[in-house]
Design goal:
Elements lengths: L1 H48 L10 E5 L13 E4 L5 E7 H4 L7 E6 L2 E13 L4 E3 L2 E10 L12 E5 L18
Antiparallel strand pairs: 1-2, 3-7, 4-5, 4-8, 5-7, 6-7
Length: about 180
């Protein structure tokens, strides 16, 4: 009976060892499946994040260059405009550019908004000119300082930059002066 009990004890130990080995194998298999599922989830999250488009600043979408199921690639997916910071880009001939300085005041009128004058200031002057029909022109950027919301991107603008201002002088039309 001691032998029988010892045999039963040894048999129970073997069964326990087999159960532990089976449990270890099952645990490793389950952990592998869990790791694989976590990997798949991480990849799916990254792919989902790639479907979002983030704007670099607050603004209004003015054009969408994608169709459903397109990928953006290197092309601009959307065109945005910041209507609170409208700018006018113009070129100024080399004979006049020396009179222009960053920060100078300007007045802007638009063909579409007759009777309205907007204040502006010179934001930047390119240090490099471009030659057009034998004339060297310098790109200049002017920003509106009092946009009332009526000015829209793409409108034709007429600009006058104040290059000199004098106080307490008499102004006469040239036709009134005789020599």
């Amino acid at each position: 009976s001691t032998r029988t009990a010892q045999g039963q004890l040894d048999s129970a130990k073997n069964s326990l060892d087999n159960a532990n080995r089976t449990l270890d194998t099952s645990t490793r298999t389950a952990q592998g499946q869990l790791d694989s599922a976590q990997n798949s989830l991480d990849i799916a999250k990254r792919n989902l994040d790639k479907t979002n488009i983030y704007a670099p600043y607050d603004g209004v979408v003015s054009a969408v260059n994608l169709n459903p199921n397109d990928t953006a690639g290197n092309a601009a997916a959307m065109v945005m405009v910041d209507l609170s910071q409208l700018q006018v880009k113009l070129t100024i001939a080399e004979v006049d550019v020396a009179k222009i300085k960053v920060g100078q005041a300007a007045q802007l009128t638009l063909d579409a908004l007759t009777g309205l004058t907007y204040n502006a200031k010179v934001l930047s002057i390119s240090p490099v000119g471009t030659v057009t029909q034998g004339v060297v022109n310098y790109p200049v950027v002017v920003t509106l300082t009092n946009n009332d919301g009526k000015v829209k991107p793409g409108m034709t603008a007429n600009l006058a930059i104040n290059v000199e201002e004098r106080n307490n002088v008499l102004v006469l039309p040239l036709r009134a002066v005789r020599t």
